């Protein structure tokens, strides 16, 4: 089950453009500053980054006050540089084509990661593929006021509960 998956064929610049368009100019400046601070190893910057991303990525999510995230900027850089390489050279889709189990993708219509570059390549490369696009839903459907119940209903249906 993929939830709010990153895209399989489009570069992240499109996601960044969408996110930035949802932030004020001051927030955009702060995003750039916090992103650089975190990349330079400032672990305190990650919580502000999460707040800014939540604002850009969510439709109408329940608050996450008090949530503290421990993140490793170097590990993040390593994982995403490898994922970017797999996506750009086509290996990510080749690996997807080798999946033999059913795959279900759940995606919000307000998620800054557009759903078509997730759904279309997967449906073309995975034999048993099912997709659900949730309305009024951002990147974290389990927190979204309008889509949360539907999201959990889809999960319950998939696991037979």
How would you describe the overall organization of this protein?
With 161 residues, the protein is mainly alpha-helical. It contains 7 helices and 3 strands; from the N terminus they run βαααααβαβα. It has helices at residues 13-21, 25-39, 45-57, 73-88, 91-97, 116-125, 148-159; strands at 2-3, 103-108, 129-134. Strands 1-2-3 form a 3-stranded parallel sheet, with helices on both faces. β2, α6 (116-125) and β3 (129-134) form a beta-alpha-beta unit. The chain is globular, with a radius of gyration of 17 Å. It starts with a strand and ends with a helix.
Major sheet, described briefly?
A: 3 strands, parallel
State the separation between the terminal residues, measured CA to CA. 15 Å
Query: Average pLDDT across residues?
Result: 89
What proportion of the residues form beta strands (DSSP E)?
5-15%
Secondary-structure element series: EHHHHHEHEH
Helical content (DSSP H or I, runs of 4+):
40-55%
- SS class: mainly alpha
CA-based shape = globular
Number of strands: 3
Total helices: the number is 7
Strand order of the largest sheet: 1-2-3
